[in-house]
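User: Run a structure prediction on this.
Assistant: Running it now.
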Amino acid sequence: MPVSADIETGYAEDAKRVGDTVRAVLAAGAVGVNIKDALCGPDRARRGGEPLRSVVEQAERIAAAREAVDSAGVPLFVNARIDTYLRGTGHLAATLERAAAFLAAGADGIFVLGTVDPATVKGLAEGVDGPLDVMAGPGAPSVAELSSLGVARISVGSGIAQAAHALVRRAARELLDTGTYESPAGGLDHDELNTLLGKGR
């Protein structure tokens, strides 16, 4: 199956090193990357808490990723993640401005987190000149509804893994607190797990 890698902000301080990261991803065999415009951790602290990179700076990072892809001759999909809604720094107009700049810099698609409001998603789909990706989870419109609004790709991010970890915690708490074992009910049996994990080997 094709694998797309979430490379956060590019694991790099500057645009050139984003290109290096993308080359490493290509060497590992992935066929897609997400690159977000949010500032995190030390980068954000150094910039006085600014939540997002400037449009110009992020476009340079996207362009470096595109150059790395093109020079390798491999059709890796560059998905530009925009965190305006997630960080509360702007809404439709600001998001569309970023989307246009990132597509012009070489992104193949746009990934917007932080909203699944149907009217907003429709406005994004109509205003983005490329495939639109959104993050969905409990309470979000269905796949069919989002598709009808113009969404090309739907991500659940780490949601399924987070739910699995929540089950582990519930089961451990139940065992320690009450000495019972009901939380893991409905789990896959060993034969089914071995079959699933052994496919293709």
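The chain is about 50% helix and 10% strand.
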